[in-house]
Design brief:
Elements lengths: L2 H17 L14 E5 L1 E7 L2 E6 H8 L4 E5 L5 H8 L5 E3 L10 H18 L6 E4 L1 H11 L5 E10 L2 E2 L14 H9 L3 E8 L2 H6 L1 H6 E8 L4 E8 L4 E4 L5 H4 L10 H18 L9 H7 L7 E2 L8 E5 L1
Parallel strand pairs: 1-4, 1-5, 5-6, 6-12
Antiparallel strand pairs: 2-3, 3-14, 7-9, 8-10, 10-11, 11-12, 13-14
Helix pairs in contact: 3-4
EC number: 3.4.19.9
Protein name: folate gamma-glutamyl hydrolase
Keywords: Hydrolase, Secreted, Signal
Length: 314
């Protein structure tokens, strides 16, 4: 790497570290956050390969200083409760699982309820939903599916920020130039066939009271909600994929510009710093080590999948 590249990346990451060095006052800080990433069913399961996690979500969180634990599907509520008390946040990733009847949906429902209860009692625990995970959150909050089909499969878009942005926790530490780029350049990759329209979202009392809408988008026909954060809970969602810009290369419509990659890292740092406010710990170091994603090896799948790498689980 030449000296110019070294200087650029050193300055870039120094700026990010400074921007996120101070986490909200009033919280003890956990400098060793561990975040769960929810697995989901494989379309055509084989022995040993019944569930998967795209490696880009793991890299995304690791890039901001977190470690990752895979949250397996089809476990008991007791097992999920034990894990909940051990990790410092959870990410519901994108994918193709059912948000109604899958192992992904059942696990998400349990963790969502545990998070609401814990946060209500002052036990900080953040939740993030990306794409499918965003859709899952809207179902869990509203109690019904309000999704409709949109022409948004494989397109990068700028964000149409709302007036609620001024009170946003998610974007408050973003540099002004990056916010301008997000508003004017197609930096957010969309890979979904279903969306929740702004009309349906704001027409539902549960969603309207629970979430602040930070951005919307349109497919030319329907305006849909693309970024939210809960008013009173550390629960966040994007219909778009912040992790893809830096870590996925299989599709030509994924943006890889400097601004796009900065978006990846600023959002990763935001969520990981939310997890730093959680003081959950594993019962022992051995339990922690056995749970980490390091016990598994990613498989290169870029030749036949939209994901460069996947972790497969039995």
């Amino acid at each position: 790497m030449n000296l110019i590249c070294v200087a650029f990346f050193s300055t870039f990451f120094f700026q990010i570290i400074i921007s996120f060095a101070v986490v909200s006052e009033g919280h003890k800080i956990n400098d060793c956050p561990i975040i769960g990433v929810l697995a989901q069913e494989v379309y055509s399961p084989t022995p040993g390969n019944n569930a998967y996690i795209a490696a880009s979500y793991v890299k995304y969180l690791e890039s901001a200083g977190a470690r990752v634990v895979p949250v397996m599907i089809n476990k008991t509520e007791e097992e999920y409760t034990i894990l909940f008390k051990s990790i410092n946040g959870i990410l519901f990733p994108g994918g193709g699982a059912s948000i109604f009847s899958s192992g992904y949906a059942k696990a998400a429902s349990i963790f969502y309820k545990l998070a609401l209860d814990a946060n209500s009692k002052g036990d900080y625990f953040p939740v993030w939903g990306t794409c499918l995970g965003f859709e899952q959150l809207t179902l869990l909050t509203s109690g019904k599916s309000l999704l409709s089909q949109t022409n948004t499969s494989g397109v990068a878009l700028p964000l149409n920020f709302t007036k609620e942005l001024k009170d946003s926790r998610m974007f408050k530490d973003f540099p002004e130039d990056l916010m301008a780029s997000l508003a004017n350049e197609p930096l957010t990759e969309n890979s979904h066939q279903w969306s929740i329209s702004t009309k349906r979202f704001t027409g539902n009392e549960q969603l309207k009271k629970f979430y602040r809408i930070l951005s919307t988008n349109t497919d030319g026909q329907t305006e849909f909600v693309s970024t939210v954060e809960a008013y009173d809970f550390p629960i966040y969602g994007t219909q778009w994929h912040p992790e893809k810009n830096a870590f996925e290369w299989t599709r030509g419509y994924i943006p890889h510009s400097t601004a796009a990659v900065r978006t990846t890292f600023y959002l990763a740092h935001f969520f990981v710093n939310e997890a730093r406010k959680s003081l959950h710990t594993f019962p022992s170091q051995k339990d922690e080590q056995n749970a980490l994603i390091y016990n598994y090896q990613p498989t290169y799948t870029g030749k036949k999948s939209s994901f460069e790498q996947k972790y497969y689980f039995d």
